Amino acid sequence: MKSNFITLLFSIIILVSCKKDLKSTADCFPNDPTARQITDEHATIKLLDNVFYIIEQGTIDTQLKPCNLSKEFQVNDLPVIVSGDVKSTVSVGPGPAGIDNFVITKISK
């Protein structure tokens, strides 16, 4: 009986730890309108100038700057599947083009 419990407990731990998935409902930019939504898109986490960005697969000039990227996903060149809201941003003066604020609603490795 005790070994069955240990086996069951071990199996549950394995199942839970295998899939890294984060769901968030916090909107870091509640006053900014959503320009578009992304649903289950393949992307890569990139570290540029000490800031983490999300680069959607198939794009080269648009960087998504997530406001709620958890520590476990802050890894350069990490492939992920991501969903979330791209927020409308207003350019004020010179600065990097193609950077949009992004609120992650779901991310997985």
Helix-strand layout with pairing:
Blueprint: H1 2-18, E1 21-23, E2 34-48, E3 51-56, E4 63-66, E5 78-87, E6 99-108
Parallel strand pairs: 4-6
Antiparallel strand pairs: 1-6, 2-3, 2-5, 5-6
What this model shows, in words?
It is a single chain. This protein is α+β, with helices and mostly antiparallel strands. The chain has a single domain (21-108), classed as OB fold (Dihydrolipoamide Acetyltransferase, E2P). It has 1 helix and 6 strands; from the N terminus they run αββββββ. Strands 1, 2, 3, 4, 5 and 6 form a 6-stranded mixed beta sheet that branches.
Attribute tags:
single chain; 109 residues; alpha+beta; 1 helix; 6 strands
Number of domains: 1
- Distance, first to last CA: 36 Å
Briefly note the CATH topology name. OB fold (Dihydrolipoamide Acetyltransferase, E2P)
The topology string of helices and strands comes to HEEEEEE
- Give the beta-strand count: 6
Largest sheet: 6 strands, mixed
The total of helices stands at 1
Shape: globular
Helix/strand class: alpha+beta
The helix fraction, in percent, is 10-25%
